[in-house]
Amino acid sequence: MRLFVAVLLDAELRPSVEDLRRQLLQEWSRAEQLVKWVEPSNLHLTLKFLGPVHASRVPAVLEALTAVEALCPFMVRLVGLGAFPRPRGARVLWVGVEEGARELGDLARVVEKALEPLGFVGEGRPFSPHLTIGRLRTPAYDAELEVALDRKSRVEVGRQHVHSVGLMESTLRPQGPVYTVLRSYRLGAQR
């Protein structure tokens, strides 16, 4: 099973993300041919990618993740469009997290700490909260994209109350991945 831990994007915010995608398509003529867009129903904030996990290990993962229930719910505010690793040579297009970035980082650290005893290695780089909206088929060295990203760097997408975390299964299909929530953990449940 291919697993990851994430905060799902509220359905109410999906139209704002789609609107931002449409705006980018209008400003960057090559976007349609270069970008594989994330389906609106798949939009999420990744806390930890686990990769392939044998089914026999899933019960231990499910139990370990109950640690997140000790944390309090919080708000996130999604603002601005950016790219990894940088606008010139972009491979991933994302929406940034302004409010709630520290809390998401705390959540990601709790997830990592809970899973380390099970053999899941830490990232080794600082956590960078973001909402991936598209992946480029090849790196984009495009001045038009840089200008478009600069223009959209402060666009307000919206706010969301983070009250749960999901252990997700990703099933890869030719049309794109299908995500299934294996279990949802309610923040503050252990208080």
Report on the architecture of this protein.
The chain has a five-stranded antiparallel β-sheet. Strands 3-1-8-9 form a four-stranded antiparallel β-sheet, covered by helices on one side. The protein is globular, with a radius of gyration of 17 Å. The protein has a single domain (2-186), classed as Cyclic phosphodiesterase (Cyclic Phosphodiesterase, Chain: A, Alpha-Beta Complex), CATH 3.90.1140. It starts with a strand and ends in a 5-residue tail after the last strand. The protein is built from five helices and nine strands. It has 191 residues and is an alpha+beta fold.
Give descriptors for this structure.
191 residues; Cyclic Phosphodiesterase, Chain: A; five-stranded antiparallel sheet; 26% helix; globular
Indicate the topology.
Layout: E1 2-8, H1 14-27, H2 31-34, E2 35-37, E3 44-52, H3 58-64, E4 74-84, E5 90-97, H4 101-115, E6 130-140, H5 143-151, E7 156-162, E8 164-171, E9 178-186
Antiparallel strand pairs: 1-3, 1-8, 2-6, 4-5, 4-7, 5-6, 8-9
Distance between the termini: 31 Å
CATH architecture heading: Alpha-Beta Complex
Backbone structural class: alpha+beta
Number of helices: 5
Taken in chain order, the helices and strands follow as EHHEEHEEHEHEEE
Q: The CATH topology is what?
A: Cyclic Phosphodiesterase, Chain: A
Helix content: 25-40%
Strand order of the largest sheet: 2-6-5-4-7
